[in-house]
Specification:
Elements: H1 3-24, H2 31-38, H3 42-49, H4 52-75, H5 83-94, H6 101-110, H7 116-138, H8 149-166, H9 170-179
Helix pairs in contact: 1-2, 1-4, 4-5, 4-6, 4-7, 5-8, 6-7, 7-8
C-alpha cells in the first residue's frame, strides 16, 4: 500500500470515527465498531493509531483545524458587512446539526478524565475562539450595548444544546437576531 493510499484510509477511519462518536458518544464507541464500520481489520486500526486515545486526539485535532479554517475564512472575508455579521455567521457555523463543533462540545462532557490530551485540545480551541470573538466584539463601533465574547460562546453552547435536545433549527436564527437586536 502506498503512503497516499494509507493516508487516505486513515482519513476515512477518522471520518467514520467522528460520525460514530457524534452518534454514540466516546465511551459507547469501541475500537471493534470503528474497525467494522471503517471496513478495516482491528490490527490495521492499531497499526494506524496505536490506541483509541490516539484516534480520539486525531479526531479532535481534525475537527479543531477545520473549524479554525472556517472561522478565519469568515473573519477575513469581505462578504460580511461588519463585525456583527461575522459574529452571527460564526454562531451559525457552530450551531448546526452537522456542525464541526458538535464533536468538540460532546468532548467537553465525555472525555475530560479518560482522554485528557484530547480534552486539552478542545479547551485550546475554545480559548482561541474566545480571543477571535473578543477581537470582533472589540472592533464594533461604539454602541450602547456590546456583547461580551464569553456571552457569545455561551450563546453558541446553549443554542447547540437546544438544537440537540429538540432536533429543530428553526429557533436558532430568531435567538441570534434577538441577541443582536441593536445591530
Amino acid at each position: 500500500m502506498t503512503t497516499l493510499e494509507r493516508s487516505s484510509k486513515k482519513l476515512q477511519v477518522i471520518h467514520t470515527a467522528i460520525e460514530l462518536f457524534n452518534i454514540h458518544g466516546f465511551h459507547n464507541t469501541g475500537v471493534d465498531l470503528i474497525a467494522k464500520e471503517s471496513k478495516i481489520p482491528k490490527g490495521t486500526f492499531y497499526n494506524y493509531f496505536h490506541s483509541k486515545e490516539r484516534l480520539i486526539e486525531r479526531c479532535i485535532s481534525f475537527q479543531k483545524s477545520r473549524l479554525k479554517e472556517e472561522v478565519l475564512a469568515i473573519i477575513y472575508s469581505s462578504r460580511y458587512r461588519n463585525p456583527i455579521d461575522k459574529i452571527k455567521e460564526i454562531i451559525v457555523l457552530h450551531v448546526n446539526f452537522n456542525s464541526l463543533y458538535h464533536l468538540l462540545l460532546k468532548a467537553i462532557f465525555e472525555i475530560k478524565q479518560m482522554y485528557s490530551g484530547a480534552y486539552r485540545m478542545v479547551i485550546e480551541y475554545r480559548k482561541w475562539l474566545l480571543r477571535e470573538l473578543f477581537d470582533l466584539v472589540f472592533s464594533l463601533e461604539n454602541r450602547p450595548l456590546k456583547p461580551d465574547a464569553n456571552m457569545v460562546l455561551n450563546l453558541i453552547d446553549g443554542l447547540m444544546f437546544q438544537i440537540l435536545s429538540s432536533n429543530r433549527l428553526d429557533e436558532r436564527d430568531v435567538v441570534v437576531e434577538r441577541f443582536f437586536w441593536w445591530g
